[in-house]
Amino acid sequence: MKKIAGVLALFALLLLQAGGALAQTSDYEIIESFKAKQQFLLGALKNAQDLGQPGQFAGEISRLEADYAPHRKLLADGLYPGTLETSIVELREQLKKTTERVLLAEESRKDKVTIVEVTKRVEESGRKIVEITAQNEQYRAALEKMTVEVQDLNTRIQKLTDENTGLLGTIRALQLENKQDKESIARLKELTEKLNANIRDRDELIVKMMDSLFDEYSKANLSEAQKKNLLAISQQNDYVSKIVTTIDGNIAYVGAAQLTPQDVRVLRDQQKRLAVKWEGIKPFVSKLYPDEPTRSRDITTVDGRLTDLKKGTDAAIWRSLQQVFSANGIAIFPFSSGGEFHGSVLVYLDEQLKDPSRARYQLFRNKVWDSPIKDQWLPVIPTDELSERQRLEIEERIALWGKKVSALLWRWVLIGGFIVVAAGVGVGVAVAMSRKKKTPTVTS
Predict the structure, then answer these.
(1) Is 369 found in the same domain as 297?
(2) Whole-structure pTM value
(3) Smaller CB count within 10 Å for the chain: N or C?
């Protein structure tokens, strides 16, 4: 563009100089001047590479024509067979050709740039297509695998559910029979342990199913169509119903089970894990429903079942703790909370303080309180259910009972000692009197 501007500036200068000198030059000089300017402009047009503003060349051609128009006849003789008009026509034809050539070159350059850009885009698109194809293949394989896994999990969950129902029925029947023979107790323990193991296994399967669906759904690179596929799989497998059924089975279990402290730890860990997992997948589950009322109903149902399970587990803990007292023949008022437990134990202890018995104290202390309640049960009962103060009050009352039993023991020891001493004195007196009677009387 700068080159063209320089050419035009030089040509304009020549024209200005010509404008003032044409009137004073000879005919020969006029003709030669025109030829030189016409050839100069013609060469500039042929060599132009970047036209920029074609109108500038057109303007210079028009100025050349106007400046030499008064010498049209002279130029016709000097340029024969050419004329001013044919020379101007030639320049304008060249201008047209140059304009077309430069425009074509510009378009070609732009086309090359476009071709390069399109090629890059095509190559990039090709790479993306390959990546997407690979991702889709991976997703398809993962989806097929997950579908098989979920179906297998459903089958295993249903099998455990059916087996647990049978176990629970057998356990309840044995509990109603209330047989205390060694064989019945062993059978009940065996069935309960089997049921506990099944409950844990089924909870693990439910959590695993949650993980498989939720983890796959939460992947950021899944398309909407792929997410819809996952939702469809969840709906086909009655996802929420499986969760509710599992929790209901656990509620039924804790409603009838006699728990050990170890059972309590396992159950609470499982319940916590299940509750945390449920909170994590709620947003996913919400998308399974086409309408808000159904979504709200089912989510509220699961939330309520988890609350019921916690309450049922708490009740089972206190019921099992009550059994510890009953199994050792200790009559204590029923309790179903930490506060009631505290009150019932204190009432029992206060009754014992009125009539302290060493045998009852040793039974309570050694067979019930120190173990298993204090060392096994109390650690699994949170302090917000049975406070440290309440535990301390029970300990203080038991200690007072122990002191009274000790005092009673010392009293009987003293009484026994007194009896022994008194008996010894009595024996001594009797012996002395007997000897006195046997001594002969001396006569004078």
Answers:
(1) no
(2) 0.56
(3) C
